[in-house]
Input
Amino acid sequence: MTRSIALRTYWGDWMKLSMSETQLFKLRAHLQAGSTKTIALGGHVFRPQGDVLFFANSGTPSKYYFEMSPQEVIAVIDEALS
Output
């Protein structure tokens, strides 16, 4: 089943992402583990670093990021999965 989450970008807009429940669980686990490695999910690649989550369509995310802490992103994922 596909779920949608909305995350706040650093430029102030909300970005809506649609992912399967499995992909959301993987992103949640990745963030919860405190990993700084890149993970590809749902047509995007993500890389947590410090208090933000970088994202891109491909490659290594380093320019665009969500202005939300990993814990805030986990909360949004939990809400989408409930």
The longest helix spans residues 21-32. The mean pLDDT is 95. Strands lie at 2-8, 14-20, 39-41, 44-49, 52-56, 64-66.
